Amino acid sequence: MLEQKEKGESLIYDYLVDTDVLIWYLRGNSKAKELLKELNSFAISAITYMELVQGMRNKEELRVLQKFIKLWGIKIIYIDEDISAKALNSVEEYFLSNSLEIADALIGATALKYGLILVTANDKHYRVFKDLEIKVFRP
Predict the structure, then answer these.
(1) Is 71:41 a contact under the CB 8 Å cutoff?
(2) Mean pLDDT of the chain
(3) What is the pLDDT of residues 72-107, one digit of tens each?
(4) Number of domains composing the chain
(5) How far apart are CA 128 and CA 109, in angstroms?
(6) Of 34, 9, 18, nearest in space to 77 by CA
(7) What mean pLDDT do residues 33-41 have?
(8) Which of 15, 69, 107, 114 has its CA 20 to 30 A from that of 133?
(9) Residue 136 in contact with residue 21, Cβ under 8 Å?
(10) CATH number at residue 83
(11) Pick from 48, 47, 31: which is nearest to 39 by CA?
(12) 8 Å CB contact between 43 and 6
């Protein structure tokens, strides 16, 4: 469980939400809205945030994304040496056999490092992570 101290409060996160789920939410998908409301609080990888920014078409969409992150109190987890090393080893081991992508390796490694449940619709991307707990989202 990841804890964040903010203004004297201890916020606890059990979930790491993958990029695809947030894209569904931002597109207005009702199942994604229900899911995120159920999770209450969650974290995302810095990779997820960057992927979302790359999908923005203009500055107004970027402002909406930033407002969403702030309003929901979403914790962005930055990549550190442990996450990088786990992702690197995973890509070496699984890219040729399973086409493990860099972003998925970093997101999976982040969830593993902090013991978070990964919420994703792309569960097949993360099957190579044996100890990773996944909550599958179906839009």
Answers:
(1) no
(2) 92
(3) 899 999 999 999 999 999 999 999 999 999 999 999
(4) 1
(5) 11
(6) 18
(7) 93
(8) 69
(9) no
(10) 3.40.50.1010
(11) 31
(12) no
How far does Cα 51 stand from its chain's mean position? 10
DSSP strand E in 7-88: where? 9-13, 15-17, 43-45, 75-77
Chain length of the chain: 139
CA distances to 64, 97, 134 from 15, in Å: 22, 28, 9
* Long-range interactions of 78-81: CB distance < 8 A, separation 24+: 78/46, 79/45, 79/46, 79/47, 79/106, 79/110
> CA-to-CA distance for 22 and 139, rounded, in angstroms?
11
Contact 109, 130 (CB under 8 A): no
CB 12 within 8 A of CB 114: no
